[in-house]
Design brief:
6-stranded antiparallel beta barrel, 6-stranded antiparallel β-barrel, 362 residues, Thrombin, subunit H
Length: 362
Amino acid sequence: MFLITISLLAFFSGALGEAEDIDESADLGFGLPEEIMSTATTSIPSTRTDPIPIAKKRYCGLFSNKSCVKRSDCSTTVRSGSKLTVDLRVKSTNGCHYLEVCCHPDDMLSPMNGTIPLGFKQCGIGNAGGIFMNLLGGRLETSLAEYPYMVAILDTGQRFLCNGVLIGYKVVLTTATCLAPEQSLVVRAGDWDLASDREFVPHVDLNVQYRIVHQQFNWDSTKHNIALLILTEEFPRVQHIIPICLDHKGVDLEYESCFVTGWNYRLMNRLRPTRNIVLRLDMDVEENMFSNTSTSPVLSAVPRAEQPMYAKGAPLVCPTESSRYYVVGAWSTSLNGAIQFTDIRKFKEWIYQEVLPYNIVI
């Protein structure tokens, strides 16, 4: 009877481990259903939010003499040059998470501190190909910290609410339709997979101290659909947390290369999502939208990927020839297959005016 019980436990443990590695990259639902929003500027008490704790130690291997550890903490991890290799197509057969390996105690390394400080403020700098790892087998998934300006807007229960973009080390840009009235909010920067805390660099959570919604925002028409979140303090200046550039006066942008970045939001609750990685969706923007004579506060674009998506609050980004990134829009609504973005270029003066009382320079 004792042997049968052990066998059953091993079977269910393996089944749960394999379930963690189901490929859900085709699930492209973003954002949240729209909620009624207050347009008043609101002050919210704030405290720093601790990261989600890592799960308890799990044993693996034929004789359970190994344990699941971060890939960066084991000498047997497959590498490509100086980077670790993560293949999303490979399903676990030992119960370890896809960012872990089954490692013998003799092969374990000291935990890696992957945080790389930056000595100065900068904006719009990406990490081509990501940092510390090569990602294989993805469809729209980006690599670790490839777009370090992305932030997730959470409630105090760590539930993902919306996408946002860091435009300064203490201020986040999003859309007004992302924000419910009087709801305490947390902004997370430096994350990559929202369903995991096993990345090689730590994310940072800061509470929102003030929210600023455009004074003329109208829920029915979604006009002036823009909002700012002022944080309790600045995010650290590190390689995996870098604001995007805002003012592109005199800068030549490659409008044919614009794209959206953001996280999935699953509308149906699941036992445990396998992964929720930052995606990149290339967009075709109507040429006349970027004309100097255009007075419309809205940009219209069509995703090149023929798949449904919902990315409320996500930034529309256009690069320069040297791959410096500028935010030009924020996901507002979708209409007849086209995505409507709030044209951030039309609201730059409003942004500068609203952050001035907080001594924030963008």
